[in-house]
């Protein structure tokens, strides 16, 4: 299955067809639908293989559709082979014109390359960021149109870089998690699975997963200033994480009997090493002298397509019939990816009387989660659903992704963690020695694979010991509350006197409030922090009196949300967070070959000149940012140079609005309406993003506040 009819902006796949059938479903469907136009994606390899005939057929049958051709010079879905003969874009355009295509848009980063070449009159040159507008333009043409994107396939470029066939990247994009608001705008713009979430003391934030990042920088567009470019010496990149010491001192479990062939089914997603895992286990079984048959079923070539692997092992004297785990015949359901594991079509291999399951319980973000930050899958429900398909009591779970990220800084190792958990639960008929021997063949990754396998074993054998190892792992680049920050000394010297009315709170809530108040001292000044603690004191007293059972929950919510709305990220605050020494130190540690950094900003002047463009400003701009951070005393005053910006005025006004919300809660709180009050207190959590996005989410929060107030 290869081609997809895709529709912007939802980017959802509406239909699939076989390789060579691109566009044909639409030709059959178009007379029977009110839809006027579709976009069909194809690659240049597919075009020369067979899709050129489909374009001719679409022209002949009078279709209204756009073929979007990614021109990268290789057949990317089968491994990046060069296709025969030199098929230049000029020749392609001329051929399309002869075939009857009405209009062609050629999107390229460097239009000047084509300006002096002989292109047909129906060709218009555009920049890649003009593609959405160009597609709208083409949609209006009554006939077949083509959009050619002249550029690297990002996956193919990454593949070549790994093989040493293309220069290694010298520029990486990272997110400063303190600046990030977790609005999801970058996910919606880039639709990129490398935009993962990390838990911080300010909630979930975006992080770019470097080992899967294609460096196409689509996420950088938009108003968000969180993105920082790291420039490194050629041949260097993200530094290696110091591997933990996990000795092989765990007791070996009793494995399953091999009185008949043992079937292991591994549902997963592409790009996460499922096929490698299957090959590794097959090799290990052979080291143990077992019979082995395997089968890998892969979906589309891109990352995160479905991958379903079967591994059947047997005693050397027992023959294995077939190489694919059939319906209700899995002995072990190895769900390294829980979302794929919960697919009913995959669960068909399970049998409640036969199957045991090993499940990695944290979830790789799906496309839906990347685009919608408020979409939260019910992980417990998914885990329990998988467990209902296995033998009662026959499911073992491990937070494999978290373990892999914390200990090794690489989620790809989560599969090995899940295998370790399955082994330690006694679900694998292969010895640990054979598994580790097989992993040794992985070359430079051998050691981390083996340690990840042992970490998975430890998660079952001694979870407390593993938890201790994970505590030391550093998970974010930015952390303005890190031990080396001035927050603790400000708590001791300035904030403690402000906390007298908050003395009845539990210790951890007191510590939370004190740290957030200290942050507000740094953000603005002591009197701003006092305004914060006084408002919280009022909430603490009222909740203790009227809803004591809910008091701690409500105070913690108020502490976080009041801090969030008061510490709004204007120019001064973004400048402070981008130049925070903790962030810069961690960046240098994470990129040992770092030679410089640059900021991706959209200063007000540039916004006026070009509303859609970010500007990458080099490290020379750091002193200016430092100065800007120190100018915070102008914030909200008549001399504030940014004070007339409508977004800034809205943020300033939002603080007063939220204080009004807290007043309403204080007036009307009862034990019976505590949940509604909690929803009101949490409203700032929905206000996210920068500039227009933030203004829009603030407007929505105000409407919600009115609705909730009516319920009190
Ligand atoms: S603030 Fe929004 S756009 Fe910026 S990094 Fe975070 S999630 Fe992405």
From TrEMBL:
Record domain Pyruvate/ketoisovalerate oxidoreductase catalytic: where: 270-457
Positions of the DUF6537 domain: 511-703
Domain of life according to the entry: Bacteria
Keywords on record: Oxidoreductase
InterPro entries, alphabetized: 2-oxoacid:Fd_oxidoreductase, DUF6537, Pyrv/ketoisovalerate_OxRed_cat, Pyrv_flavodox_OxRed_cen, THDP-binding
UniProt xrefs under Gene3D superfamilies: Pyruvate-ferredoxin oxidoreductase, PFOR, domain III
Molecular function per GO: oxidoreductase activity, acting on the aldehyde or oxo group of donors
SUPFAM superfamilies (UniProt xref): Pyruvate-ferredoxin oxidoreductase, PFOR, domain III (SSF53323), Thiamin diphosphate-binding fold (THDP-binding) (SSF52518)
Designated name of the protein: Uncharacterized protein
Organism per entry: Hyphomonas atlantica
Highest classification ranks of the organism: Bacteria, Pseudomonadati, Pseudomonadota, Alphaproteobacteria, Hyphomonadales
